[in-house]
Amino acid sequence: MARPEANAICGFWETKGKHGKAKVEIFERDGKFHGKLVYVENSTDANGDPILDVENPDAAKRTQPLVGVEIMSNMAFDGRYKWEDGTAYDPDSGKTYKGNIKLPSPDKMKLRGFIGVSALGRTETWKRAAEG
Hey, what CATH class is 7-128 in? Predict the structure, then answer.
């Protein structure tokens, strides 16, 4: 693949979590790239109330709906093939990891979350999704 532009990761991406399929919108803000949950397959409980970010270590954020939570922050494009030096938040566990992204093709993204060094982490593959 040719060298991507910095904004090549912007748009909508599909992933999965504890509540089923999810969609993340990645966007640029102040020269860094961020991602927020815009869709969660099972986003309401049995009473029809929104699923909340109950695993968040910040008690004040545990009452916010999962849809809308920023799960990726401050990824910086290295000018070549990777977005790095950001963080990835896992709402299933409430943990935040260092993160980086590689784009092996325009429609496939590899998000790696890790503690310490990248070798000690986990990679998720996301597919590009339709808008909204």
Answer: mainly beta
Domain boundaries, the chain: 7-128
pLDDT per position as a tens digit, 44-76: 999 999 999 999 999 999 999 999 999 999 999
pTM for the predicted model, two decimal places: 0.91
Q: Which of 22, 27, 58 lies closest to 39 in space, CA to CA?
A: 22
Quote the tokens at residue 101: 């992204």
Residue 45 token pair: 């409980």
What is the distance between the alpha carbons of residues 113 and 121, in angstroms, rounded to a whole number?
A: 6
**What does the alpha-carbon distance between residue 12 and residue 75 come to, in Å, rounded to a whole number?**
16
Contact 81, 96 (CB under 8 A): no
